[in-house]
Automatic annotation (TrEMBL):
It holds the Pfam family Ferritin. Belongs to the Dps family. Residues 23-160 form the Ferritin/DPS domain. Residues 172-181 have a biased composition (Basic and acidic residues). Residues 162-181 are annotated as: Disordered. This is Starvation-inducible DNA-binding protein. Gene3D superfamilies: 1.20.1260.10. InterPro entries: DPS_DNA-bd, DPS_DNA-bd_CS, Ferritin-like, Ferritin-like_SF, Ferritin_DPS_dom. It comes from Pseudonocardia ammonioxydans. The lineage of its organism: Bacteria, Bacillati, Actinomycetota, Actinomycetes, Pseudonocardiales. Residues 162-171 have a biased composition (Polar residues). Keywords: DNA-binding.
Length: 181
């Protein structure tokens, strides 16, 4: 938990420190997501190249905005946002994105898993913030809604006519990429 010397009116320093800790994790996840999306944008190939390449850039831009919002909320609460690459790598609880140059649909299968993890973790923090800080909760709810829509955009490319996803039971990005192809 972060040491907080001051925070917003109506919120105690201890609660603010807890929220800052939650937000620091979200900051790392969102920074990682925007870098991962840009990596996929640069590395997609195949017949769906242009559709996926152009779909990912607006997602990158939106997620970069989320990063800024989270960092500024940390500062508003009296914390110090840490956006350094070393901190992200040291503190993250997930593996690095594992797909390089590959078919656009393979990247979408892998990115579906990435989005699932980020969204699930956002939802966990949203629940924890229910009584702790509705302002921060509202920010994460808004972000989760957009992240869910971005995931839907990916899944629309992956969905079979019966509504299933070929990659839905995959446990790793490589398995999801393989199943999506």
């Amino acid at each position: 938990m972060a040491t907080i010397r001051y925070t917003v009116p109506g919120l105690g320093n201890s609660d603010a420190g807890q929220i800052v800790g939650m937000l620091q994790n979200r900051l790392h996840a969102l920074n990682d997501l925007q870098l991962t999306l840009k990596h996929a944008h640069w590395n997609v190939i195949g017949p769906h190249f242009i559709a996926v390449h152009e779909m990912l850039d607006p997602q990158v831009d939106s997620v970069r905005g989320f990063v800024d919002d989270v960092a500024e909320r940390i500062a508003t609460l009296g914390g110090s946002p840490d956006g350094t690459p070393g901190s992200l790598v040291r503190e993250r609880t997930w593996d690095d994105y594992s797909i390089g140059r590959d078919d656009a649909i393979a990247h979408l299968g892998a990115l579906d898993l990435v989005y699932s993890g980020v969204i699930a973790d956002h939802r966990t923090q949203i629940e924890k913030l229910e009584t702790l800080d509705p302002v921060t909760q509202d920010m994460l709810i808004s972000q989760a809604g957009e992240l869910e829509q971005f995931q839907w955009f990916l899944r629309a490319h992956l969905e079979n006519s019966d509504g299933s996803l070929a990659s839905q039971s995959s446990g790793t990005e490589k398995d999801a990429a393989r199943a999506a192809r």
